[in-house]
Amino acid sequence: ERRSVLTITEPPRFHSQAKGKNVRLDAHSRKATRRNSFCNGVTFTNRPIHLYEKVRLKLVAVHHGWSGALRFGFTIHDPSQMSSDEIPKYACPDLVTRPGYWAKALPERFAVRDNILAFWVDRHGRVFYSINDEEPILFHCGIKVSGPLWALIDIYGITHEVQILDSMFAETMTTARLSTARLSTCLPQSNHDSANFNNNELENNQVVAKIANLNLSRVPGLATDNHIIPCCPNRRQRAQGVPAFLDTDLRFHPTRGPDITFSQDRMVACTNWQESNRTLVFSDRPLHIGESLFVEVGHLGLPYYGALSFGITSCDPSTLRTNELPADPDFLLDRKEYWVVYRAFPVLNSGDILSFMVLPNGEVHHGVNGASRGMLMCVDTSQSLWVFFTIHGVINQLKILGTVQSSPVTVSPSGSPGGSQYDSDSDMAFSVNRSSSASESSLVTAPSSPLSPPISPVFPPPEPSSSKNGECTVCFDSEVDTVIYTCGHMCLCNTCGLKLKKQLNACCPICRRVIKDVIKIYRP
User: Which CDD domains does the record associate with it (predicted)?
Assistant: First the structure.
């Protein structure tokens, strides 16, 4: 029956009208390219998708430098009835917070050029996807299948161009086969996926119920006693560049998320991986200027989203209570203290060793296995700063190896030690809350989490842009046309500049000097 449907059905194409402003289609509407920026890439199919019909997408072009990848899912809303003004910048959270839209993000590790993504929905409202025709992964539950469904595709982040291939039909997922299917995590990847997660109430109950026969408690290699915490499994030899002698006076602070268990010496933090939602851990003392912290990660090797978040705060952990610690560290940005969060780490292997160091000029640099990865963020070094982490998804263990006090670092005019460029994922860092009260605070995000209008961000110099004047370093969308007084940096559009100027303690996104005024530039 499914084969007969294919013979009389035209292969799906991209809808020629219902698309984001940065989307360009080829003459046959089979290939969609996002031009400029990282967003405004929402597209739909031109016809409804049948149950079990695979929407097959080839990732034609992937451009690294952004964070996040393709978002995909389904909608019950006919794109032909949409006006261009109704199509927002982002599928997540803009569309998925509306009734009748379901979408989530493709894990970045699968966003590889020439990979073929196939996704489909079955009669039970379950969405599966596969990469290059490998085993299917359970992605979504609770899709409304009583009416027509159009595919929703957001060409987002590092995904630059996709092509719709001819349709195929998926096999029915029997109970026996479902028990061996991999599943996407019950933890959202990021804040914008969290909006989708909460809106559709997906994995909390339905996925767990539908794959109850996945006996996760019997995964080999997992300790059954959380109080017995081994060293990171399959630990490699200490990476080159890690000092042979480390001070071990820094440990995890006793204040921690309720889903964290410490080793007896508080040098190892381990999650209760089946229920690891609130996993904040802090250092038990401030990190000194010029001091390098070395930590080792361990993970389960299971196909879960999420990994490690890193942050800096002026808040003494001893003033916090366990019941105040949220699952998402972004909620801490509403507090009156100084908080900075970074979560765009690359995929880490078990046994990888990370290093973090705060330089005198406020730059926080990091390395992996002894290799420098550049700057993560800029922080205010005029106050004591504690380090904190959240341990999520595939990462289930974090071990403090020790610290070492470095000699003073010569900072070049470019802002990086020794004149090195900003070759890290620093354009994906989250910014800070510097307000004097919670009511004045705001979450400022880079492209990896487009949640709200950026205010007082801390970004390194932007990458060279192909456009004439470059993209605004705050919204990453509009053209730069404003100069900051007194530092003279020209890195903002006028809209963001005016918003930034109004904020308490507003500072330049590049050099962090106080903004006294912003001046619009008019070019001939």
Answer: mRING-HC-C3HC5_NEU1B (cd16786)
- Give the start-end residues of each E strand in 63-131: 71-75, 101-105, 116-121, 127-131
Q: Is residue 222 part of a domain?
A: no
- Does residue 48 belong to any structural domain of this protein? yes
Query: Are 269 and 123 members of one domain?
Result: no
What pLDDT digit, counting tens, does each position of 106-128 carry? 888 889 999 999 999 998 889 99
The Cα diameter of the chain in Å comes to 72
SS3 content of the chain, % helix, strand, coil (to 5): 15, 30, 55
Query: For 458-514, what is each residue's pLDDT tens digit?
Result: 444 444 444 446 788 888 888 899 999 878 888 899 989 888 888 877 888 887 778
Pick left, alpha or beta for residue 259 (phi over 0 → left; psi -120 to 50 → alpha; otherwise beta): alpha
| Residues 399, 260 share a domain | yes
The structure's pTM equals 0.43
Domain that holds residue 488: 468-523
Non-local CB neighbours of 392 within 8 Å, separated by 6+ positions = 187, 271, 276, 279, 306, 307, 308, 309
What is the per-residue DSSP string for 122-171?
Answer: -TTS-EEEEETT-S-EEEE-----SS--EEEEE--TTEEEEEEPPPEEPP
Q: With contact defined as beta carbons under 8 Å apart, do 356 and 297 qualify?
A: no
Q: 403 with 291: CB under 8 angstroms?
A: yes
Asked if residue 392 lies in contact with residue 325, where contact means CB atoms within 8 angstroms, the answer is no
CA gap 328, 342 in Å, rounded: 12
Q: Which residues are bridge partners to 129 per DSSP? A: 119, 137
Q: Same structural domain for residues 362 and 478?
A: no
The backbone torsions φ and ψ at residue 282, rounded to the nearest 5 degrees and listed phi first, read -130, 155
- Distance between CA atoms of 102 and 150, rounded to whole angstroms? 11
Kind plus residue range of the DSSP H or E element containing 199: helix 191-200
